[in-house]
Amino acid sequence: MPGPSWEGGDMRAADREKQPLLSQSVYAVPTYSSTSLQDAVLPTPAVLPPSSTSQIPPQIVVYHRRWWIVGMFCLLGIAQGAVWNCWGPISDSAKLVYRWTDGTISTMANWGCIAFVLCAPGLMWINADRLRSSVVLTAFLIAAGTALRCIPASAGVATILINIGQFLNGVSGIVLMAVPPLISSTWFPPNQRTTATAISSIFNYVGTAVGYLIGPLFVSQPHLTPNSTVHQNDTIIDDISEEIRRLMYVECGYCTAVFLAILVYFPSKPPSPPSLSAAMHRLDFKTGLKQLFRHGQFWLVCLAYCVPLGVLGGWTAVLDVILSPHGITQIDAGWLGFYGNIAGCGMGLVLGRFADYFAGHLRLIIVVMMSCATASLTWFTIMLAGVLPLTEVSLYISFIVTMVSVNASIPLFLELVMETTYPIEEAVSAGVMTWGNNLFALIFLLVPLLPQVGVTWMNWAALASVAASVPLLCIFSESYRRLHLDTAAQENGGHGSSDGGIVEQSRTVTVVNAVE
Fold this sequence. Notes:
66% of the residues lie in helices and 2% in strands. Helix 13 runs antiparallel to helix 17 and helix 16 (362-384) runs antiparallel to helix 19. With 516 residues, the chain is an all-alpha fold.
């Protein structure tokens, strides 16, 4: 049974007699070779709750409110992604108004990586019991960061305030990147976990796509000519400055509204767990981290995720800077980034649902997607290198296929790692992966600060990072411990219903003394 921390999880004796009993084998801890590093993180009697060896099964309930939780988290992800990707799509205008350089633009995106690398110890705070406080704090940091950018000031002071706001937004990314697998395991049944992880993680990239769209829509492309008078140029700069300020107000208003909605209602977890694995205790942060560092298979899939996702994250943040030498405006680059990210997010949702229907084949799907990304990014890179003719159609197809293949793989990577490292806390495993992701993005975005490095190397670095993930995945040995535990529970003693052997509770039905 779930421990006392699960509200409503304690049944009366009369109710207990009516519940079907699960086979003892469901709760028994299997014996594994102690010499295997891959088995070093398997459940042991010390980490299971005291009641896990009893014949009484936990009450498994799935609540409709789980969709509110994931919906609010998605809106928050959109906010963080849009704020993070605010300056790249309007880089020409920002450089004119604030007298920034390409290095300044990359620094604005790099604050997210810097904040994550510096504040990674905050991951020890995140678990199922602290989900609400973590998400509320995240929403507050985003709203506060956008509010700082709205303060009227000179170009120098405004630059400082914007940097602080971008840093706060970067700190919020710790939760947004690490928590999706925790939300899916805490609130969703096994046959919806990958879908929930896909929804929770993908919408942060929807926010990135929104940044590509709303920036150029609010802020016009500067058109200064050598024949323009000083007065005419000053007027243009003032007009663009006002457009940027209007964009800051809109983003601040949206982020504040999302923060207030989450503050009103966002519980940490449901009264009763949605699966047997959700009811099991997890390893504490310190123990789980030690086990993770000794888990060889984890590092294979971690590198296959961190290197391409980190480099491509930095690459897309400066897409306008990369395409500008080829005569592509910030508006065209913005639309290109928007279509690529939206298509990738849509495919991510489809693949997440597909993976739930065909559980146990995550690695195969990821290998196919990363191979497609390698091929399309090769096409994109050699076009910009001048080997093949650069056309608008070819540019769009190659970029969109790359983003579809990479972004759609993100939730599958996360779920594959959660299965491999169970019973380590989901936020710990995902946090280590996203820490590595941000570390590689940080390194990528620091390079433009060096003098005279140019931008040509960026495409080749992105291509090499994506190609390197395929052989790592091929030698990775996948396992599905958490899925097997929950599947055994449903087959041997689940509560029969139309939702995969799990009770679906409406807003008027009472289960285990808890009313939805």
